[in-house]
User: Fold this.
Amino acid sequence: MSDVHGAGGELLFCERRTRAAAETELLGRALGRALGEPGEKPGIARGAGTWWLLVGEMGAGKTAFVHGVARGLDAHGRIRSPGFTLVTMHAGRLPIVHVDLYRLEDPALVEALGLAEVAPPGGIVFIEWGERARNAVDADHFEIAIDDQGGDDRLIRMTAWGPRASALGRALEPVLAAPRPATAIPAGRSC
Assistant:
């Protein structure tokens, strides 16, 4: 799927249908494990310094996905939507910053939040309601769109924007498409 490019230089590297919140979380867990693996530079995880914008309606599964990523990175405790806190940090193999912009609809408020300053060195940032942060993050980032297909079915699309994100997206594609137990994530169009 890594040959699918849009006009803006984006790379769609994963498209997966899940049929339950647990499956959405399992896909997040697979991504978290892959992001915590050693990268090209010694001592630096492959996902270090990456930004992930999660887009989807209320209840689509954004928080379940981030919870899965955190589990894949060996973070402890339950990952919840930060709510009124806006930003929470979690310790794992990589520091995880979880941002929820639901309450910030004004782009000026998102800019004032100073997202670049909350990212720890070598950490990873996941932003729920990420469409509100597109102008506040580096052009080199990822977007995870979670579309409610009715009931518990979700269509999850992962897109890389920019050269560094695209290179990592290509590297993640086979990892996310690896065979899984039949109970983990059902067949469908995969990464």
Remarks:
- The longest strand covers residues 10-18.
